[in-house]
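Narrative of activities, Objective 1.

The group set out to show that a structural description can be obtained from nothing but a protein's sequence at a throughput compatible with the screening campaign. Below is one input-output pair from the validation batch, recorded exactly as produced.
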Amino acid sequence: MGVWSSGASYDIYVGRWSRLVAADFVRWLDRPPGARWLDVGSGTGALTEAVLSAAAPTDVVGVDPSADFVAHAAGVIPDPRARFGVGDARALPVVDGSFDVAVSGLTLNFVAERTAVLGELRRAVGPGGTVAAYVWDYPDGMQLMAAYWDAALDLGLAEPTMHEAVRFGFCRRAALQAVFVTAGLTGVDTTPIVVPTAFRDFDDFWSPFLGGTGPAPAHLAALPADQQETLRDAVRDRLPVADDGSVALTARAWAVRGTAP
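Output recorded for this entry:
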């Protein structure tokens, strides 16, 4: 199974937490009703759903490079205001200035050409339009992933550069603000969004890692069975398991927005 081959597995792993962040993100943007929204890297539709629920848009167009994710989003979001298509964030299949708001959730850290991608979002909205994004705070605020990678490194089962805190070290407030400014956006602003990631027990925490979708689950799937078991036990030892077996963590994202001049 590929890193991004299953929309259902992604939703169970991290998409459910993205939905909580997306709702706060849309409220923070506070765009007027009747706007046209573009969701770049729309994934399984978490951000599109939040826009439809809270922003009263005219329509929302989602673009993602994964055909599986596009099909999943289209299947779970029947709202006629939403439509999804496969596309590249570096060359969006949209007309200049055809949207009022262009957003991207949990995508910027996965692209090398961030300034170019933001330039495409800027092109999509035209002068006065809003461009905004959010990413997980991998270096300091994504506890469920840190527990996995910290254990994998301690056991010698991963290279240090595989740790998402290292691989996605860009995901910090100052770096996000800087790339938006470099892309020519004005009035750039950032804010943290923190959501609870609560699990009934350790199995509820661990089972999403078995789906193969996402960097950590894909890494786990590539390990031999005995190493998977050793890693599972090491991760369990790192977690704050309550007397009733539950695991209460938090996930922090950084949100950033700017205006196209």
